[in-house]
Design brief:
alpha/beta; ATPase-coupled polar amino acid-transporter activity; Rossmann fold; 6-stranded mixed sheet; about 250 residues; 4-stranded antiparallel sheet
């Protein structure tokens, strides 16, 4: 890998009651790397993604971001979350704020960026994701694809070190999926560090530096997209791909 380690998970375990959802996860994500996490439903992909910014506390093990251990709570955690952008399945935009207000809120409140500067930057980002003409609308007036692109712009507005995407296209109508994936591919090629939980194999092939395949709470296999898709080494991955790619 070219970049130095940015997100490092060591021996991470997580239980929901008696269910062992993350089992001894060791994973290092390097600066500028795009890691796509694949696997069947219930394999722990989203839990892993959410653990990286402590939306999901872990039972044991360590997670560090840029060398700093994940804080438990309080201001240190808020500061860390500012460095770790998150784009969810449901867009989680503030319904009572305009698109522009949604994007400037974090930078002005958390990063203490002056309002005029935050607005200028927000408009640049909306332009970049292709929805600058929607700046004064409210989220409910936008299509799902537009809302998700606003959510990506909102994550970028904080100048994060890494952005986590938790199934960002799974709630979208099929015709809107590509407009969001196109924005993500552009980000990936621009050097953004990204961790992407997705079912979109095309995105994984096109944009990922590395594919991490999970099953039953474990990382079963990791490889380059070319190797993973053409030559999976584990039976779990072979089985998963035969089901997915035969459609």
């Amino acid at each position: 890998m070219s970049g130095e380690p940015l997100v490092v998970l060591t021996s991470v375990n997580k239980h929901f009651g008696s269910l062992h959802v993350l089992r001894d996860i060791d994973l290092t994500i390097h600066k500028g790397e795009v890691v796509v996490i694949l696997g069947p439903s219930g394999s722990g992909k989203s839990t892993l993604c959410r653990a990286i910014n402590r939306l999901e506390p872990i039972g044991s093990g360590t997670i560090t971001i840029d060398g700093v251990p994940l804080p438990e709570e309080g201001r240190a955690l808020a500061n860390l979350r500012a460095d770790v952008g998150m784009v969810f399945q449901s867009f989680n935009l503030f319904a009572h704020k305009t698109v522009l207000e949604n994007i400037t809120l974090g930078p002005t409140k958390v990063r203490k960026v002056p309002a005029a500067q935050a607005r200028t930057r927000a408009m640049e980002l909306l332009e970049r994701v292709g929805v600058a003409n929607q700046a004064d609308k409210y989220p409910a007036q936008l299509s799902g694809g537009q809302q998700q692109r606003v959510a990506i712009a909102r994550a970028l507005a904080m100048d994060p070190k890494v952005i986590l995407f938790d199934e960002p296209t799974s709630a979208l109508d099929p015709e809107m999926v590509n407009e969001v994936l196109d924005v993500m591919v552009t980000l990936a090629r621009g050097g953004m560090t990204m961790v992407v939980v997705t079912h979109e194999m095309g995105f994984a092939r096109k944009a990922a530096d590395r594919v991490v395949f999970m099953a039953d709470g474990q990382i079963v296999e990791e490889n380059t997209p070319a190797e993973f898709f053409t030559n999976p080494t584990t039976t779990r991955a072979q089985d998963f791909l035969s089901k997915i790619l035969s459609h």
